[in-house]
Amino acid sequence: MIKRVLLTVAAVLCSLSLFAQSDFGGVKGKVVNRAGRIPIAGAELVLSQNGENVASVRSDAEGNFLVENLQNGIYDMKVTAPGFLDANVNVTVEGYIKDLIFVGMVLEQVVTDVDDSNFAEFDMEDSGFEDAPSILFGSNDPFTNIASFGFSSIRFKNRGYTNESQDVYLSGVRMNDAITGYSPYSLWSGLNEATRSKETTVGVETADESFGGYNGVTNIHAVPSSVRPGWRFSALTNSALYRLRLMATYASGELDNGWSYAFNVSARVGGNDWVKGVYYRNFAYYAGVEKRFGDYSRISLVTFAAPGQRGAQNASTQEVYDMMGDNMYNSNWGYQNGKVRNARVRKTFEPVTLLKYKYSDDKVDASVALLWRTGKNGYTAMDWYDAPDPRPDYYRNLPSYYYMEDPDYDRQNYQKYAWALDTWQHQLPQYTHINWDRLYNVNAGNFDEIGLRRSKYVIEERRVDQNDVHLTANVKYQLNKAISLAGGMTLRWNRTEYYKKLDDLLGGDYFINIDSFAERDFATNPAMVQNDLDYYMSKGTAPVVGKGDKYGYDYYANVMDERIWGRFALDLGGFKANLALEGGLNEFYREGLVRKGLFAGLDDNGNEIVYEGKVLTTYDSNGKPITSKGRSELQSFWTYSAKLGLQYHFAGGHRVYANAGYFNDAPTFSQSFISPRTRNSVVPNLETIKTVSTDLNYQYSNNGYNVRVTGFYTKIMDQSDMMSFYDDSQNSFTNFAMNGIDQRHMGIELGFKIPLVLQGLSMEGALSWGEYIYTSAPRMTQTIDNSAEVIADNALVPYWASHPVYKKNVVEGKTVYETDAKGDFIVEKWQKHYVPSTPQFAANLGLNYRTNSYWFFEIDAQYFANSYLDMNPLYRTDMAVAGPDNIATPVEVEYMAAQERFDPVFLLNASVGKSWYIDRKYNFGFSLNLQNITNNRYVKTGGYEQTRLIDSKSAERYYRFDSKYFYMQGINYMLNLYFRF
Amino acid sequence: MAVVVLLSGCEEFQPVFTGKYDVPEPARIYTDADFGTLTSIADVKQMYIDNDSKPYDIVDNCVIKGQIVSSDKTGNFYKSFYIQDETAGIEIKMGKNGLYNDYKIGQWVYVDCCNLTVGAYEGMIQIGYKDETGEYETAYLEHQILIDLHVFKGAIAEGADLVQPKVIAGEEVYDKKNVGTLVTIEGLKYLNKIFCIGYINPNIVDEDKKKSNENRFFLDEEDPDNWGINSWAMSETCFRQHVENGDFDNVVMNDGVTVGARKHLIVPQPYTMNQYFEMPGLSGARRYLQVRTSGYARFSDVDIPAPVLSGEATVTFTGVLTEFDGEMQFTLIDLSGVRKADGSPWYDENNKVIL
């Protein structure tokens, strides 16, 4: 800051000597809080021309400011003050000191209390449905501001990119999950105040403390000195996620002795208006301390966590939703003695500790940070052994299993259909929800020879326990006014243990740790069905497990990630350029902790495993033993990426900038193993993901106008993906490991905020219009957790990126496909397949009104279209398309390979809020937000295709299983009351 | 703040109970008093016979009570169980997997037959749901609501109430009264004869193509080695092993081609098999007792004890007597139903032969 003032003074002095007196003037005034005209001290005023800063001053204790010796002309004056919204004023200097009298500023929190992160909490992974907030956080960017909050309920993905591509940093440390790449917002959910201060970039832009990717960077400061000083209490109630949130925050700001303290605690409890069985019992804490040493150094220590549990939602088929008359039906819960019990509960406690040293002087900004994430992350689920499937929406419980109009389905049992329909239409709880009473009764009646009860149904807890250590160092050096150099390096070690723990025996005494399904196929070879073969071979029996014991699978994911980056930035006033490079080494391996009978591998001495004279060791197609225990081969990926950014400021607040980048990313651990729960085998042809991304932007920011237009083009190549689904026909997980997936994302993005005639009234809008498509035919390897057989071995998925649509006519109500002279069907066009689970067209138009008495009103109309369902690879193979007769007809191709497009949707949202001040010291207020005012309950936000085929009576084709969907909730409110001093 | 707390207080804060759940009450145990007049199983079977041996849809009040004598625990029974009273035994076509979890051997069940159908499969009379497709004479109940409306669980019998297998011999085996009940047959001798229909590709959906001469082969002629098959049945793994060993290579299919010539086309699957035993006191084809075992049974790959295979020793079976088109078959519940002449078991609890 001091430096900037000095520079400005120098510039002004310099210009003084060059120009005649009459060409100069100045500007003065008083910065005030617009409500009550209370002076604001210490506000920073920066005047710029053609994008180049010309002068910079601060308001005095009375709010007064004065800038002199300005060359005549038009200037942009940006006024910033802590706790207030940034203000922009256009100033014309005409040879004298112009008195602006008052520069009014609006308090910040009336906006920020409609906080994006309040709503943006969804379940990730494990339910077949992955999602995350569309864009994590708001910023001053007009598009991001709207999209981050306003688009989250539709699960909008910025530019169609995956969650993994969104880089999230905490105090300069990259926090994206080491195993999956996901942005780990849940680590600090509920700590809105402690994590409020942040900086964000969009798209390929480079950030200050990192290299970043192609989908923006968010860096949450999280150190105590960044938390807004004072006390703050808030109580929030909402109908969407949890009933009540209570939060308390205190930050000391920097005290005279150089210390800063901050803490933030919250509790989120209760259910919601829409989905039964979903609840929160979450708490969160943050505590930080920081000490300044001398003028340049600071050390901070921060620790936080968001422990708690919450019930999860499940997707169902449309048939189920229609019968229940509710698209919010949740199959995860049932009554136990009249009380609602959810089988799927996420239980987490993952504390993060950060130690950071920071050095700043006029030329150098440097920091070293050490971060440690540990703890437990569990997700419960039903598990059962050789007993009927307990899920209420299991397909054999549905009417469609008994009767389909088309006789080719071979389902013509109308009476059973009617009975099944009856259970759903009357919503009989023992059929339409989990029947806990029955599960307990089965367990209670299953006595063994010695009178103990062996549980057949249990609750398992799938644990993902991380130990994640980062050491990050960054430095920025201002070589001269024009050139700055920055760079950094980061070392990361992650060891995550994946295992299952027995959570509840549901009335039984014990459970046996064997692979229940393998037992069907290998009944006469007890060694083959063992989940823990070593135990079996030494003790002669399978392990007996009780509550809290590990069972099933147990392995470590070990990841080592090292990166080094550097950036050269040129700042010539109006013209800016930067070039950044990053290189890295990402290495990982799986380390199995138990030996599974099906994948016995070799023993410690390299010998085959033999049980009762039978060799258990099996080999893959390359002749390598398939192993479950011990280390997999080390996967090593060298990566190198580069970014170039250019921008030019024109007079009057216009800016044109462009970015381009080439990125080379290692596949994540979670994308790389064909069946990580059971074996060390790696996806074939694993390679780095290459991404080319460019954007061209125009921004206008002046006089309260803020407009950005962006065009972007991104090509992502050689991606791998691992999808895992529970397949009831196999009573196990079936895994589809895909490789060679290419995508292309292109589109335009528009964001604007335009002041209207009435003071305080403005119009806001956002538009994202793109085409995100698949461009390659990938390959897939299909395996089942409880079988050594590779069902599909690196097989082509030819209809992944598109499928042909044939030329046809309707003759007397029947569709006739045309053929050419040779008798071949004529392809009319190739229907593209799209990147799913986000609207590819999203628009928002809103009005925003703020009064001088701190009222604010906002209303937004939204339109979303071109959203698609996630595809499974099975339906895009020749096998599925051709059917059992191996003849692919046009009807089959157009049916099996097609991708479902969701209906477009119109939504209306509104907010209102007010703040009150007492003695300038106490501030209290409220904000009320209404989402989906028209109560539209038919909006699909995502889902997935089931990966099973139905045989036909004709034996000529296959049919699909019904897809499962997630829907958006209907009208929701969120009311927040706060008090601060 | 208080307003928010009040507002949100309208909804309970524990929409989902998160404390320790109470263990549910045990399921209701039905007794005779719940049902009034009971019909005998023999009378229900007679309804089928009286209807010219065609499926009979029961529309009057008709509740039968029987004790469960079979279990699907080993997988040799599938989606159904047998109940018997003092008059007869009958199969109840339940239509769910893992029935033994809910229905124990020795448990009394009441079956309300009103709106159910009594029909037969190749001579075996069963109770099930009406098969609207007409493919079979009865269908599985299958949906839980149909089970709940028709099948009621009673107490588990103990001591003298527990049904004991009836020891039968000679022509008694052909007495229809014994079909579908728990029986013991003594002094059986292995005949070195099996029956199994194999498929080159069992996944062909079209029945005609599946049963074509190019796809189907028979393991039914007396072969001195039984193609190397010594087990009760063949799981997929076991079948694959035989194929890999070339055991079936010389089997000539109906179109004159050997299985060996089509070996590369074979898709392994589990195979149900009949092992033939000779019953004492009978002659000709009537002496055959076919012990039919599913390829999905847990003990399918377990070998018949060597002394039995070689004819040195006899065997006593306990299981459910069944019928297939006039031929008597026998279904083991598990291998504890395979005993030596002196009554001691041939297998231990891990299905290892006790010599």
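Residues 57 and 71 of chain B are 27 Å apart (CA to CA).
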